[in-house]
Amino acid sequence: MAYLGVERSLTCRRWVGPSVETERAAEAIAQQTGLPRPLAQVLARSGVPPHEAESYLSPRLRDLLPDPRRLKDMEKAAARFLSAVRRNERIAVFADYDVDGGASAALLIDWLRQMGRAATLYVPDRIDEGYGPNAPAMRDLAARHDLIVCVDCGTLSHDAIAAARGAEVIVLDHHLGGETLPPAHAVVNPNRQDEDGDLGQLCAAGVVFLFLVETRRQMRAAELGEGPDLMAMLDLVALATVADVAPLTGVNRALVRQGLEVMRRRARPGLAALADVARMDTAPNTYHLGFLLGPRVNAGGRIGKADLGARLLSTTSTAEAAALAQRLNQLNEERRAIEDAVRAAALEQAESRGLDAPLVWAAGEGWHPGVVGIVASRLKEATNRPAVVIGLDGDEGKGSGRSIAGVDLGASVQRLAAEGLLLKGGGHRMAAGLTVARDRLEAAMTRLAELLARQGAGRAGPADLRLDGLMMPRAATHELIADLDRAGPFGQGAPSPRFALPSLVVRHARQVGDSHLKLTLADDSGAALDAIAFRAFDSDLGPALANHGGARFHVAGRLEINHFRGQQRVQLRLEDAARA
């Protein structure tokens, strides 16, 4: 049954509340721990039993960090790396051009710098070279280096790694592996086919962090000291984990939580400069990482110079950091303009095919390859379906896809490549990249839709709004928000708490900007709550609330602290409403 009887809200969504089992579990947690009921509801949704509530709310990395040696090739990879450091060998880092690749490269460059060593950074151009190692680049690097470390790429790069004659190659990756591994000295990847997959949710920076933990262990065993402070590097791991849309559960949750604490110190010049150009005026959280910092780091690889992000994250110069941050901010503005044009065209095309299919996809002539992934994310968010967006150029199309929880897009794309419907393709559960011949585009997308449908894509209603429970305005306090934050950080796989507030009246409402709405809501007791509804006038939500005529509404949203002119007030980020 629809929650509060809302089958079709003002944004055309059906409200779905917690199950009976979840409600019972929440009651048990509240009774046995004394925690506030809203927090108990969030814990119950996450499957946390009462006796584990306190440990879950205070995760310790040392309790959750896995033994790096659980990953195949980890020991030999770290041993070869440490040998190169001790012998002062020439080391190159070959990185992907996104946030995860840039952060992974920065981790290694920072670590080596603190050890008195330098490394050559190489990031391929998205358009000219494409994703991952290529034979000419690897051949050139091998001629000038003894060791090449590929981060966030390399697992499927058989020919490119074979071309690196004269140098040894280590791969530190997380993308889905094939039946055979490339001819590298070591391939450390939790998503190799011969791994159990228990650590498959790590992003590449998480894998690199475990690699450095193992390197430190081998240094201790050889009585070479402790090495650099790895905990101080978790700001990079946190940024990559959130930006790469890795699930914020298990060890990822602990990595991001600790990384946010490190980021608060503003000790890394690149991240501090980026926070300043993004006008961050509060302590960093996952929203900042995913929507303010991440897109700016990505902008270089999308439409600018591919290595800008990695250089920003690894620099120790405040002047260089400021210049790079300004350049990335400018590129991000340009990226937004390009994205808006592609998004409008892609949405129109996808709508013509129907938005209730297992796969939502669009392809267009000359669409910039640097923004197709972002547009795919927008289509996925709008439809609750896996989405693929492809830019066509000549006889080929290059595209990116984004998936929803429970649907492994990377495996399906890789299967299409194995079946010959794609020229190449790969990725991980939540994201994938592909290259397809123009004359096979329709056949490839039809087959991909079939594979995704088998995993359940298309079954969930695109209009479902999931809620954690009920709340009244009087319960919305600073203390409750602080309690709820203890269950975070929130993001992919761990959505931030969303509550319904029933039968409220609108006391005040005014439009802000082109499409936002500020309002004050109240219940029968007189308790009031400020709210903000972004882009409310893009749907029926804004007009209905602004011209309420005294009507009562059920509202839904997330609690937050509004920082304004030195004051902090509780407000509801209102996402939906329905007439009561």
UniProtKB/TrEMBL annotation:
GO terms for biological process: DNA recombination; DNA repair. Residues 90-241 form the DDH domain. Residues 468-576 form the RecJ OB domain. GO terms for molecular function: 5'-3' exonuclease activity; nucleic acid binding. Residues 361-452 form the DHHA1 domain. Keywords: Coiled coil, Exonuclease, Hydrolase, Nuclease. Residues 321-351 form a coiled coil. InterPro entries: DDH_dom, DHH_sf, DHHA1_dom, RecJ, RecJ_OB, SSDNA_exonuclease_RecJ. Pfam families: DHH, DHHA1, RecJ_OB. Belongs to the RecJ family. NCBIfam families: recJ. PANTHER family: SINGLE-STRANDED-DNA-SPECIFIC EXONUCLEASE RECJ (PTHR30255:SF2). This is Single-stranded-DNA-specific exonuclease RecJ. It comes from Jhaorihella thermophila.
